[in-house]
Design goal:
Blueprint (H helix, E strand, L loop, with lengths): L2 H23 L3 H19 L8 H12 L11 H21 L24 H16 L3 H24 L3 H7 L10
Helix pairs in contact: 1-2, 2-4, 3-6, 4-5, 5-6
Length: 186
């Protein structure tokens, strides 16, 4: 195992600990889903396929996306925002489980995954994360939350563009799954 692999495992393990602390402070279903998500990311990072090379700029974009505090966890969420947040988080977790060993922070060719939900949009994990974070921003509406959410959208768009350049077989995949992130739009 290389130093970069160890750093990734430590990063996700630390994120798991931080999400536990946040969940204790603001005990909501979405906060505890974050604990599960980060723990799952730690496990998958240990077993993932390791590419021969990866994209360093893409790595930094991934780290920015992971560390960007869009908003804080609210103590309570309205039922509609909770449902939206759960749907977004469900999409993230579904995508992650399907992606499994092909998961990584930096864009790299770890194998193309095309089965559901990757046959609905090409980047369902990013879509789910944006929906989830949008629910949190709406619950704790602030200028800071909106601005950091917009930065997150920009970072994810840059990540998408970098990923689509490095994965083998992507041209055929684009023809069968038209939308990158938002069906009917992009």
């Amino acid at each position: 195992m290389e130093l970069g692999d160890i750093a990734g495992i430590v990063f996700f393990a630390f994120a798991t600990v931080l999400s536990v602390l946040a969940s204790i402070q603001h005990s909501t279903v979405l906060a505890w889903l974050s604990v599960f998500h980060n723990g799952l990311l730690t496990f998958i990072y240990v077993i993932r396929n390791r590419p021969l090379r990866s994209d360093r700029i893409g790595l930094w974009l991934g780290l920015i996306a992971a560390l960007l505090p869009t908003t804080t966890y609210p103590d309570t969420l309205s039922t509609p925002l909770l449902v939206v947040g759960l749907l977004g988080y469900g999409f993230v977790l579904w995508s992650l489980v399907i992606l499994w060993r092909s998961f990584g922070i930096a864009p790299a060719d770890r194998g193309l995954v095309t089965k559901a939900p990757y046959d609905l949009v090409r980047h369902p994990m990013y879509l789910g994360e944006l929906v989830y974070r949008l629910a949190l921003v709406a619950a704790t509406f602030s200028l800071w939350g909106v601005l950091t959410f917009l930065v997150l959208v920009a970072v994810q768009v840059l990540r998408i563009r970098r990923e689509e350049r490095v994965i083998t077989g992507y041209e055929d995949y684009k023809s069968s799954t038209r939308w990158r992130l938002i069906p009917g739009i992009w």
